């Protein structure tokens, strides 16, 4: 009995282990399964309902609009300035009495640094960081008024000379410190020199009430030393230690001139 070689089924080509032959499929096609099955197949997700854990978009909360303009301003100040960011609070709409109290408290706090100076302060150059010009202006005007009241003649000329001397002297001394390379703000230096006039204001007021020349000399010497001692820690730390004398000598000279006016005017 002869067998035909052509009828013998040829084995499929050998494939590497772990791989399927090219013509063999691991699973029957999906369309054949759909044709043979009589029951409909529903392709569903393993979850019974779609998950709802997606984050929702954030929406701005609509707050109630303030009733008055002042309430609207406070609302925006709390919204933008409460965390330390944004512009400074607007003080143009606050009551006048609040503004006066804030300025007076600032003047008193800055005056304490002069009345009770501490040369051993850790940061004497930054102690007067919250400077203002209302206090120095008041002390300059007050000293000019006291000197004009003490003069017997030409009171207006005395006031003009005293005011010009103090104002121009403060500007010149500030420019001197800046030209020496001092690390200080221009208006901060003006504020400092004006606050240091407070002891001389007290001395001028005492000398106006007391007519004895010896008492005047003692009072002026004490107040002059007081003013110089108050200005020393601020001006000395603003410049290089090698140029300290160049910055302090003009300050002492201006205060000596003011003390001479207090004694000489009668």
UniProtKB/TrEMBL annotation:
<feature type="domain" description="Yip1">
    <location>
        <begin position="127"/>
        <end position="260"/>
    </location>
</feature>
<dbReference type="GO" id="GO:0000139">
    <property type="term" value="C:Golgi membrane"/>
</dbReference>
<feature type="transmembrane region" description="Helical">
    <location>
        <begin position="246"/>
        <end position="265"/>
    </location>
</feature>
<keyword id="KW-0472">Membrane</keyword>
<protein>
    <recommendedName>
        <fullName>Protein YIP</fullName>
    </recommendedName>
</protein>
<dbReference type="Pfam" id="PF04893">
    <property type="entry name" value="Yip1"/>
</dbReference>
<dbReference type="InterPro" id="IPR006977">
    <property type="entry name" value="Yip1_dom"/>
</dbReference>
<dbReference type="GO" id="GO:0006888">
    <property type="term" value="P:endoplasmic reticulum to Golgi vesicle-mediated transport"/>
</dbReference>
<comment type="similarity">
    <text>Belongs to the YIP1 family.</text>
</comment>
<dbReference type="GO" id="GO:0005802">
    <property type="term" value="C:trans-Golgi network"/>
</dbReference>
<feature type="transmembrane region" description="Helical">
    <location>
        <begin position="133"/>
        <end position="152"/>
    </location>
</feature>
<feature type="region of interest" description="Disordered">
    <location>
        <begin position="1"/>
        <end position="31"/>
    </location>
</feature>
<dbReference type="InterPro" id="IPR045231">
    <property type="entry name" value="Yip1/4-like"/>
</dbReference>
<keyword id="KW-1133">Transmembrane helix</keyword>
<keyword id="KW-0812">Transmembrane</keyword>
<feature type="transmembrane region" description="Helical">
    <location>
        <begin position="158"/>
        <end position="180"/>
    </location>
</feature>
<feature type="compositionally biased region" description="Pro residues">
    <location>
        <begin position="9"/>
        <end position="19"/>
    </location>
</feature>
């Amino acid at each position: 009995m002869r067998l035909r070689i052509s009828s013998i089924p040829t084995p499929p080509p050998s494939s590497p282990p772990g791989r399927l032959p090219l013509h063999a499929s691991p699973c029957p096609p999906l369309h054949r399964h759909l044709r043979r099955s009589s029951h409909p197949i529903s392709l569903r997700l393993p979850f019974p309902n779609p998950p709802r854990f997606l984050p929702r978009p954030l929406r701005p909360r609509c707050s109630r609009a303030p009733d008055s303009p002042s309430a609207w301003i406070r609302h925006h100040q709390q919204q933008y300035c409460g965390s330390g960011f944004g512009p400074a609070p607007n003080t143009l709409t606050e009551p006048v009495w609040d503004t006066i109290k804030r300025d007076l408290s600032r003047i008193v706090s800055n005056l304490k640094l002069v009345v009770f100076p501490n040369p051993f302060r850790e940061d004497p150059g930054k102690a007067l960081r919250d400077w203002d010009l209302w206090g120095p202006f008041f002390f300059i005007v007050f000293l000019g008024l006291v000197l004009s009241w003490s003069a017997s003649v030409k009171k207006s000329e005395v006031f003009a000379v005293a005011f010009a001397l103090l104002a121009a002297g403060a500007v010149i001394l500030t420019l001197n410190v800046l030209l020496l390379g001092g690390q200080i703000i221009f208006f901060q230096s003006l504020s400092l020199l004006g606050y240091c006039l407070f002891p001389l204001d007290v001395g001028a007021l005492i000398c106006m009430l007391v007519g004895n020349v010896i008492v005047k000399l003692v009072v002026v010497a004490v107040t002059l030393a007081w003013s110089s001692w108050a200005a020393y820690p601020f001006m000395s730390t603003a410049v290089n230690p090698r140029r300290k004398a160049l910055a302090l000598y003009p300050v002492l000279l201006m205060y000596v001139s003011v003390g001479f006016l207090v004694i000489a005017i009668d």
